[in-house]
Amino acid sequence: MPHAVVDYSDSLTGAFDRRAFALELHALVVEILDTAVGNCKTRFHRLEESVVGEGTDARAVVVHVELAIARGRTAQTKSRLTRAVLELVERHTAKAAGLEIHASVDVRDLGEAYTKSMTTP
Question: Which UniProt keywords apply (predicted)?
Fold first, then answer.
């Protein structure tokens, strides 16, 4: 915890430094949720195809961040995190000249059955 999954349109590949985004995201999550950075995990899914609206504008691309966090955080904390992550997405996609970026963030609680492990062979 927390787990972030970032879906992004293929057109952003050259303009979206995913590693830098993840490292800043982790620092942001640590600050807002008061957790250890070692708990943060981020995965990226490149979308070969995405369609926005009627699909007539090829400049329209998508970035969606889903952040799953431990239960018990207040609505205010989740809202603060959502806004901060959206601002982070906007900063990290600002160099995508000529594209219309449709960014969104969803923060949700991990399920009651969530469990984790870490092994070192």
Answer: Isomerase
Q: Could you tell me which residues come within 8 angstroms of residue 78 by beta carbon, excluding any fewer than 6 positions away?
A: 69, 107
Alpha helix segments (H runs only) across 9-99: 18-33, 75-92
Measured in Å, how far apart are the chain's first and last C-alpha atoms?
Answer: 22
For 62-92, give one letter per residue: b (16+ CB within 10 A) or e: bbbbebbbeeebeeeebeebbebbeebbeeb
Q: What is the pTM of this model?
A: 0.92
- pLDDT tens-digit map of 5-28: 999 999 999 999 999 999 999 999
- Whether the CB-CB separation of 47 and 10 falls below 8 Å is answered with yes
